[in-house]
Design goal:
mainly alpha; two-stranded antiparallel ribbon; Four Helix Bundle (Hemerythrin (Met), subunit A); globular
């Protein structure tokens, strides 16, 4: 049995983002109970790392823009202006809603598609499959994990199953 580009991307990204939403909901409940929402939203694991808000924004951006590139589409823009858990959760849900609009017909067959990713003044070039497997998926997992770690480090009661989610 083979797995298609769509199967390897959209369902996995949606699952990770749904799990991120649950993690953020637990963070919101913790912040409400302790009256520390602004502190958690701006919290980092280390001074030179990005805060929770940016980790969520980047996970959303990479999932949304990455799959759109594979499909040959322009992803909808999202402002990076979230300052509350409710706004971050809404952003994650909006990203999931966009991913749900994409079809296998739009993404399958993109394994060899040339993807040029602007990176400041430079750019990176990928074929579709390496772009998915070695850029999109690891980046989304990294930023979701870092969001989880920031909240866990700050006392939010999270466990491995919050990251992995319930079995399908």
């Amino acid at each position: 049995m083979t797995i298609s580009m769509y199967q390897a991307s959209v369902p996995s990204l949606i699952r990770s983002l749904n799990n991120l939403a649950v993690i953020l909901e637990k963070g919101a409940a913790h912040a409400e109970a302790k009256k520390i929402e602004p502190v958690l939203i701006g919290s980092r694991l280390y001074p030179d790392m990005l805060p929770l808000s940016k980790q969520v924004q980047i996970a959303s951006d990479i999932a949304r823009r990455g799959v759109a590139r594979l499909a040959g589409l322009d992803a909808p823009a999202m402002a990076d202006d979230e300052t509350t858990f409710a706004e971050l959760i809404a952003r994650v849900h909006n990203t999931i809603a966009y991913l749900n609009t994409l079809t296998a017909a739009q993404i399958d067959g993109s394994e060899e598609k040339e993807i040029v990713l602007p990176m400041g003044k430079e750019s990176m070039s990928f074929k579709g499959m390496p772009y998915l497997l070695f850029f999109i998926l690891p980046n989304v997992y990294f930023h979701v994990t870092t969001a989880y770690d920031i909240l866990r480090h700050n006392g939010v009661e999270l466990g491995k199953m919050d990251f992995l989610g319930k079995p399908s």
